[in-house]
Amino acid sequence: MRAAWRVAQVRAAEESLMRTLPGGALMQRAAAGLARRCADTLPRVYGSRVLLLVGPGNNGGDALYAGARLARRGAHVAAMLLDPERAHRGGLDALREAGGVTVDRPRGRVDLVVDGILGIGGRGGLREPAAATVAEISDVLHDTPVIAVDVPSGVDADTGAVTGMAIHADITVTFGVLKPGLMVGAGAVHSGIVELVDIGLGGYLDGDPALFVPDATDIAACWPRPGANDNKYSRGVVGLATGSAKYPGAAVLSVGGALAGPAGLVRYAGAAADAVRLHHPPVIASERVADAGRVQAWVCGSGLGTDERAYGELRAVLGAPVPVVLDADALTLLADARMSDWLRERDAPTVVTPHDGEFQRLAGGAPGDDRVAAATGLAARIGAVVLLKGDRTIIATPDGRVFVNPTGTAALATGGTGDILSGLLGSLLAGGVQAEHAALAAAYAHGLAGRLAAEGGPVTSADVASQLRESVAILTRG
């Protein structure tokens, strides 16, 4: 898995590395990688028109040196110095020597904008006069590809928070290691495609990464596959206490998610048993958890309701000595004082899957700008794995490890998709996957299904369910 590191760790690693290098070598490495990506983005370098937005310090220096490299290849490079007195002198001299110029505002056509205003030390959004300058050229930024240097200006590199004006980048070229703010929250949206340029920091990083980001091979590696000697029971049995007479669709969707997973048998327990039998004939359906039979994992909550019957079913699920997924109404019930001891007394793994509103009920406050800290705080407090839903879903463990799913899509922001996710997650738990890895694998496959569904137009939860098997097939066949 790829790791993302906090700003303080990156700064310390850079300082250690620079002590072993000639002066300016690290900046030249960064500028070379940045210039290469700029060149790849342009239809052609010679004759293209590149605008550099240059702030003070090293971030602006990276942009200026990269601009000098492009100018030497025949590009027309113009730099807007947002703080001329503090512009990087060496970078500015290099740009001018290569034929680049400084300007007060864009002139004529612009083929590429390079955002070098603020680096990873920036906090709290763009301030004046940079904010005013960016606002004045908003039409250029809207109509032209934008490459950010290390992090989009205005994005908090540690948290992904965007608390003021910030640059929206199409591509972010980040140096040495990934930063958490490029992977989570609003920062991930502002960062666009993130490309990592190796500048040699690997051997100089101390401590643990802030978070991990998987790729498809990581997910495939943890996904169970049936063996020649397996049967439906050895592959795992998952139970679902979901849906109700009022919300039978939640049961149908969550069971559909479970059937796409690795478990060999699905049991359903609830008031929507008839609807489940109709839509999913392979499922063994009963009316209550107590009558469902033996399972290796439970999923509880989607469409369950919050009445006394629902309380009883949730207590039965939490009392079972197997991994449990809690979603939707189960989270509302869990916030009730009557349920507080049931979760703390569990020995088996528990995964909770809140969206922001449900998180607020559980935690007593909204996730806020630092979604990673919010998720890890809740996981530690309740002793459960937290899957905090969002465009970049976060999975946090009670011991402080954090994973971020990169396949999120706005297409999943529609009713019922969370039911599918919880069912798939339960199937992975029943198949023997460790709780945090099951949560990450389910989120990854679910996000991929959402992307596949979006290729056909507006997306419903039924569309996501229909694409889930294809997304699992893509992952498991490599």
How would you characterize this protein structure?
The model has no long low-confidence stretch (mean pLDDT 95). The two termini are 16 Å apart. This protein folds into 2 domains: 207 residues, Rossmann fold, CATH 3.40.50; 261 residues, 3-Layer(aba) Sandwich (UDP-N-acetylmuramoyl-L-alanine:D-glutamate ligase). Helix 10 links the parallel strand 11 and strand 12. The longest helix is centred in the last third of the chain and has 20 residues. With 478 residues, the protein is an alpha/beta fold. 56% of the residues are buried. Helices cover 40% and strands 15% of the residues. It is elongated, with a radius of gyration of 25 Å. A 9-stranded mixed beta sheet has the order 12-11-10-13-14-15-16-17-18, sandwiched between helices. A 7-stranded parallel beta sheet has the order 4-3-2-5-6-7-8, covered by helices on one side. Strands 1-9 form a two-stranded antiparallel ribbon.
